[in-house]
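Prompt: For my understanding, could you write out one protein's sequence and backbone structure tokens?
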Amino acid sequence: MKKVEIISKVSDYIRHQKLLLSHETIVVAVSGGADSVCLFHLLVRLREHFDLELHIAHLDHQLRGAESESDAVYVQKLAKQFNTPITICKQDVLAYKADRDCCLEEAAREVRDKFLCKVAKETGAKRVAIGHTLDDNVETILMHILRGAGVSGLRGLAPFSTLPYSQVTTFRCEDIHADQQSELLAIRPLLNINREETVKYCHVYNLLPRTDSSNLLLSYKRNRLRLKLLPLLEEYNPSVKNSLLQLAEIAQADITFIEEQAVQAWERVAKWKGDKILVDKKKSILLPVSLQRQVIRLAVVKIQGNLKDIGLNYIEAIRNLLGKNVGKKLYLPHNIICYSEYNEIVICNAAKRSTGLEAITDKMESSPSLLDQIPLNIPGETILPRWKVVTSILQRSNNSYGLYKAEGVDTLAADLDITITGTQLFVRNRKTGDRFQPLGMKFSKTIQNFMIDTKIPIAQRSMVPLLCSLQQICWIVGFRIDERVKITSNTTNILHVEFIRLRN
């Protein structure tokens, strides 16, 4: 390989995609592997031409013991060799994974992104360079296909994209949420070269990159895809990588056109009303299905700031509300609620609606915590510090299912299936390790994570009462009931619980 070959390819790609501007500080994510080391060395060679200030960011995930520590030493020596400042940080990804109740790959990605944004903030950088290659793009496209992505997911990795968590001021996981939007750009200058080329480049320049042993572990989905599935697909089509990249290129052109049309359609069929978005049913149903989906995606972006965890299955579920009667509700990740009214679909974020957190914490800065378990009189009234709790047992009528106003979301009243909850209920504050299954979700999560996702300030979390049975947490009062105690078609008797604020 000629030394000028890759530098020319990458330099042309950077110019074509306008990835670098002169007189900038660029944070370079360097793990120590061939891709990131190649990226850093190329940017060093382009540093003078673009008048760049480079700053290396290296994160030790504490997953590989001495190997990880050796990686950090190698990257530090690399920074010193090329006279580049560096920030090295250690983060316990396994602890973060347990706290967030997510898979290891997702935890590692989130911790990395938060770290990169922190370094960018400290250095004044507006762009973070990441060593994703053509092979990473192929793997991403294939993963999206296997996951059941729509057309948007077929686009794969973009030359640049916004990076989450840019509003980071302190690097504490609970202070930062994945919904936060970013004006910080992640740039990918190596998307037009493959992994083999980065390895050869490092060999030519005697850079001696590190090898990450975890890249060979088949317990990771992406590793299985790279080491097992792609070689199998190449037996059927030796050019399968080119085919996937061509698919992404076509999808990019198509979705760009659809997105432009959706912006125009938005003006006709959707509008803001307070903190909610209303999507007109009659007008939307006349749109082509592709535009219906895109308008809904646009509404979610406007509510949440991005489409994180909102896959095609959720978009389809919302779209199906166009033909549903009043009362049908959907509960999506990140506290998004969608429900059908007579003429509109309503899309909102429970965490941003005023009746939940404000109702709980209004004028309660000095409110005492409940601490002890306080049993409730069922039926009847119970007086708590700052609260009166009124309970009653109702018989469910066949024609009223689904129309109860109080489902435990942004309200101080809730209707629960008393067959599940029982009558031995009590109220307390949260404890370390508390878990529940939020209404609309298939899996449980910690109360702490729910409160983080709902953006309840740390100082106010102890003010939120929990309604509990002997077996489980039934309701985070004012926010969400547990999926397992909801009213269903089999419910015969309903426990109605209402919290009433006492004014002293």
